[in-house]
Write a structure and sequence with these properties.
Length: 501
């Protein structure tokens, strides 16, 4: 080998390339912290209830107080990122989230915790709304973009199950306060690193006005819709409360759409709905997350209430899913998407997820973890690890540089709405079925198991519905999920706008 060849091989990667991957790590650290907080409290709820005196009917609001502002503010926050700069919006969200986490950990009564959780949800929405947009604008080359989206998707999909593990360990070894305190140093460090290594851009639509009325209408509609979904678990889907608030959300949404058709600088440009793949990916994402939530929430309850697991054992019970998600999304998904296309990979992944939930739909009262839960973790981890990168690529494929923050906000909004929908529908079905079995004389544990079986089966049906939507609506070339094709309506911005060398 020549001296010139040896020196070429020894050359370090270009500084700009290194800074992009460093920026990706910073973005993913912030996103992971936000995603973890959506589930880390689940296994700590009994300890929080005992410590702060929550009633059984009000305990669910420890979760809902986070979900409602998170789902309601994502779209507006994503647009602010487009208009005023995504670095500024990302850091602002981190600061709010970190401060609210400190307040959560210090809370000595239920009211303080709920207010702080609401602020956490708002800060999380602001942070999450622009993360995917920054990722796709940093990485324009097909191969590198596919790998970057794989990393982002791993954080998105594995964060929830990792939260269950960390929540159990922290609650059992220290106290529930530390599930919030742990965010403080991480959030502060991430904000400092983001300030140093993310390059401030001027905003894709600099000089445009903000559609204040449209922002108010869509935020109110989303907040009311998410509230209606999560409150339906308490009031019932056919109750006057649910129907009135649901109708109110629909009226606000209709008013928002009318406003967007008439506004000079609309918050949600009507052109966003013309992209078939974007609309199809968002619908598929919502249905898939709704079904998958039956694992993240109800499998935890099954392990604790039926199998008798403590918090730490429950957390470790979901580790196989996280490991497989990481393996697939980081190593295999980018290659498979590049070779077969996002649509083909997504269809196969949805079949795996539905199969995993179908296995859980057979759980029994006298089963074990190895016989009832573990066999389902394999197809669930494989499927989810493949589905999220494909969906993220498809959802962003139609976004222009000026609208990528909006598309990112829409993608994350659908995930949050899907989580809320899954929580409300599946937990209500499980509770209703359990109550009916108890009224018929079935023993307590048998009744619980019967409720969980029904919910898992409905979750599988939701994922099958996502499969049908994806098969009928999505149309993608082989490279589109990994690297959107150039042309009108496609995001291909320069990487130099988001990072410093």
């Amino acid at each position: 080998m020549s001296t010139q060849a040896m020196s070429t091989q020894a050359m370090p990667a270009p500084a700009g390339q290194v800074s992009r991957w460093l920026a990706l790590a910073i973005l993913c650290a912030g996103q992971l912290m936000v995603i973890l907080d959506g589930t880390i409290v689940n296994v700590a709820l009994p300890s929080i209830q005992e410590s702060l005196g929550f009633s059984p009917s009000n305990l669910g609001w420890v979760v809902n107080a986070y979900l409602i502002p998170f789902g309601g503010l994502l779209l507006l926050s994503g647009r602010f990122g487009d208009l005023f700069g995504r670095k500024r919006v990302f850091i602002t969200g981190l600061v709010v989230f970190t401060a609210a986490s400190l307040l959560c950990g210090l809370a000595q009564n239920a009211g303080t915790l709920l207010v702080a959780r609401f602020a956490q949800g708002a800060g999380g929405a602001v942070t999450s709304s622009v993360t995917l947009a920054v990722v796709v604008t940093m990485f324009t080359e097909p191969g590198k973009r596919a790998r970057a989206i794989g990393v982002y998707s791993f954080v998105q999909s594995a964060g929830g199950t990792l939260g269950l593990l960390l929540g159990g360990v922290l609650t059992q070894t220290t106290s529930w306060h530390w599930i919030f305190f742990v965010n403080v140093p991480i959030g502060a460090a991430t904000a400092v690193l983001a300030h140093r290594h993310l390059r401030a851009e001027q905003g894709a639509n600099q000089g445009s006005s903000v559609d204040v009325l449209g922002a108010a209408l869509v935020t109110a509609a989303l907040v009311l819709a998410v509230y209606t979904i999560v409150a339906a678990a308490d009031h019932g889907f056919g109750s006057v409360h649910t129907l009135v608030f649901g109708l109110g959300a629909l009226v606000l949404l209709a008013a928002f759409l009318v406003r967007q058709a008439r506004a000079e600088d609309p918050l949600l440009p009507p052109r966003m709905f013309r992209f078939r793949n974007v609309s199809g990916a968002l619908a598929t994402h919502t249905l898939m997350i709704s079904g998958m939530f039956s694992f993240q929430f109800l499998a935890v309850l099954y392990m604790q209430r039926v199998l008798g697991f403590d918090e730490v054992r429950t957390g470790f019970g979901v580790v196989p899913v996280s490991l497989l998600i990481g393996l697939m999304s980081l190593l295999f998904a980018p290659r498979l998407i590049a070779r077969f296309g996002g649509r083909a990979v997504l269809l196969g992944a949805l079949v795996l997820i539905a199969g995993g939930l179908g296995i859980l739909g057979q759980v029994s009262v006298d089963g074990t973890y190895l016989s009832e839960v573990f066999p389902a973790t394999v197809p669930l981890g494989l499927g989810f690890g493949l589905a999220m990168p494909a969906l993220a690529g498809l959802a962003m494929s139609g976004a222009t540089p000026g609208d990528s923050g909006l598309a990112s906000g829409m993608f994350n909004t659908m995930q949050q709405v899907g989580s809320s929908l899954g929580l409300a529908v599946l937990s209500t079905l499980a509770a209703t079925r359990t109550s009916a079995l108890l009224a018929g004389g079935t023993a307590g544990t048998d009744a619980l198991t019967g409720g969980y079986r029904l919910a898992f089966r409905v979750g599988a049906c939701l994922v099958l519905a996502a499969l049908v939507v994806a098969a009928l609506v999505l149309r993608t070339a082989r490279r589109s999920a990994a690297a959107p094709a150039t042309g009108p309506g496609t995001a291909q911005p320069a990487e130099a706008n988001t990072t410093s060398g």
